[in-house]
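Hi all, posting the design record for the shared folder.

TITLE: backbone redesign
STEP: 1 of 1
STRUCTURE INPUT:
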């Protein structure tokens, strides 16, 4: 992972506050976050919690996702070369998970490329309450086993499900199956375990 990428929440907050013509006092009053904490966040001295960011975003009449999505407008563009992208392999070597997601979103949004060799199996424990997964089969065929349901997906299929339960993915294709996996949480009520 490129360790030189830094998220500038402070600059984003300062720009939004000024664009909305709010003083630190006004934002503090509306959000319930102290003026000194807001000032520290804007100066990148303090890292806010998710609940603090939700209160600030709401006070600025922004959704939390918009607040972070628009961070891209204030940071440099970057390309992560394939050889720099983190890769995790299963003990048996039949599954490999390429971590595509950005470090700054790991608490609420994660995405991966899963490559499964024939007979590859990936077992996952519950990711916690109010967590969800979207799986799109890029090529091949996969069986997804949930507590009370089993789904078979083929190339081009997408399956969305709540991941508050153990689940298992099994390659049913004679060749390699590739999947795009996106995990996210309900921004108000969830957290990854």
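Okay, here is what came back for every position:
SEQUENCE:
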């Amino acid at each position: 992972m490129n360790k030189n990428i830094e998220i500038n929440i402070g600059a984003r907050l300062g720009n939004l506050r000024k664009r909305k013509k709010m003083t630190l006092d006004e934002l503090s009053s509306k959000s319930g976050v102290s003026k000194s904490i807001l000032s520290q966040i804007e100066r990148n001295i303090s890292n806010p919690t998710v609940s603090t960011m939700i209160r600030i975003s709401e006070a600025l009449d922004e959704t939390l996702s918009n607040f972070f999505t628009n961070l891209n407008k204030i940071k440099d563009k970057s390309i992560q070369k394939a050889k720099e992208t983190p890769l995790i392999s299963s003990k048996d070597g039949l599954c490999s998970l390429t971590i595509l997601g950005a470090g700054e979103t790991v608490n609420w949004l994660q995405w991966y490329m899963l490559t499964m060799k024939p007979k590859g199996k990936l077992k996952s424990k519950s990711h916690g309450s109010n967590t969800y997964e979207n799986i799109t089969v890029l090529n091949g065929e996969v069986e997804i086993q949930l507590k009370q349901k089993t789904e078979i997906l083929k190339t081009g299929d997408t399956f969305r499900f709540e991941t508050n339960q153990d689940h298992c993915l099994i390659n049913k294709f004679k060749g390699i199956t590739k999947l795009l996996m996106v995990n996210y949480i309900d921004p108000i009520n969830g957290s990854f375990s």
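COMMENT: Residues 9-19 form the longest helix (11 residues).
Let me know if anyone wants the other runs.
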